Amino acid sequence: MSNIVAIVGRPNVGKSTLFNRLIEQKKAIMDNVSGVTRDRHYGYAEWTGKFFTVIDTGGYVVGSEDIFEEAIREQVQIAMEEAGVVLFVVDCITGMTDLDKDFADVLRRSKKPVILVANKADTTEKSYAAMEFYELGLGDPYPISAENGNNTGDLLDAVVANFPDTGEENPEEGIPRIAILGRPNVGKSSFLNALLGTERSIVTDIAGTTRDAIHTRYTLYGKDFIITDTAGMRRKARVNDNIEFYSTLRSMRALEECDVAVIILDAERGLEAQDLNIIGMADRAKKGIVLMVNKWDLIEKDSKTLPTMEKELYQRLAPMDYMPIIFTSVLEKTRIYKVIEKIAEVYEERSRRVPTSQLNEAILPEIEAFPPPSINGKYVKIKYLTQLPTPSPTFVLFCNYPQYIKDNYERYLEKKFRAHFGFEGVPITMFFRKK
Ligand code: GDP
Ligand code: GDP
After folding, report:
1. Which residue, 65, 80, 138, 182, has most beta carbons within 10 Å?
2. DSSP 40
3. Ligand 1 centre distance from Cα of residue 202 (Å)
4. pLDDT value at position 225?
5. Distance 112 CA to ligand 1 centre (A)
6. Where in this chain does the record put each EngA-type G domain (predicted)?
7. How high is the pLDDT of residue 62?
8. Which run of H or E residues covers position 55?
9. pLDDT band at 37 (very low <50, low <70, confident <90, very high)
């Protein structure tokens, strides 16, 4: 088993704070609603040369008074399935609760090593409060402060002691993470199931083999992928989350964590306002995009139908008309492979880095041929440009009057970037800086 540690505990004890401390990445966006944390569910950590994966099981479970029991069950199940070590977090400030005892009962019966973490021991005085947790029968509590980092080193020593191997630094580097998005009924689950249906394609499930897999790794037609947030699709009705809010939240989370978004439309309905919203969201998030027009089998067609529809779609998408469009039938399994192929291509395009010299050689003549229009008698002169080392293509253009560059000129430049360097399916970002 690989090096995996799972964090469990009732809501508000500081699981996501601890998670973020372990992966040293304060990316979590906390919601005011107790138990709803919009953050990553797993990440990578390193301690004394050992690499391991951290799962925040709390992130999977929407805690509320009436589903505590369910929450415990789900968290513990994920932890048991996935982890080599379980961190059971309790709270020194509020002290022991019945729910802590319930958790402890379940954990004591498990065969996994459990480390009892008494969080919010921000000071030495407060850490004395950790003593009461001995009563849980899970050994010595580790008093720590996830917030200020107190004693987290000792905790990490105890964690990695369970891992004989050094582990892999980042087992997912270079593997595209994809999200499957679209309005209800366009065929997201069917598409996913079609992918899953290619038996033996599953390499590993990183978090959750059953229902709550947030990141699942597959090999499809010889290409590796990680699909983010399959939970929302594979399992539609679950406690408390048949609400639109949670499904939107989950889509946003999946989008946030992906490299390439596969956005599915229904061919019979065409491109509607809601579809444009989803596409706009992916565009703003600077994700790679593959547009999949599904249920193509339902369309009565002749040889002109596809090119006509494609043309119309591009017109409506403008200026977001840079993404590949693939007409599929998940039902009849047509062009599914094409989608997979495009995802891989778009992923490559998104990570493309153009050397500065090549960039200037190509783009400066385009600027000279069609310079930005003068404004109030001022001539904008773009002197040179360079690409930033960001996850999606971002260019900085140095000029004398950055404030005078208008949107339509940016569009012109974007077209030239694409003409020279491709970037199919990838939003391009430009910054104009004074030089
Ligand atoms: P979760 O619901 O278990 O994931 O808990 P969160 O990580 O969202 O934390 C719940 C609250 O406890 C937040 O307001 C945190 O700022 C706070 N918190 C987390 N860790 C500590 C800590 O070490 N000390 C103190 N004083 N507060 C903490
Ligand atoms: P989701 O809500 O986006 O996950 O959509 P589903 O995958 O549940 O599909 C909704 C309905 O559309 C189901 O009845 C599917 O069988 C059907 N469906 C999915 N893909 C296709 C397709 O390519 N052609 C046709 N005719 N029906 C499809």
Report:
1. 182
2. -
3. 36
4. 81
5. 25
6. 3-167, 176-351
7. 47
8. strand 50-56
9. very low
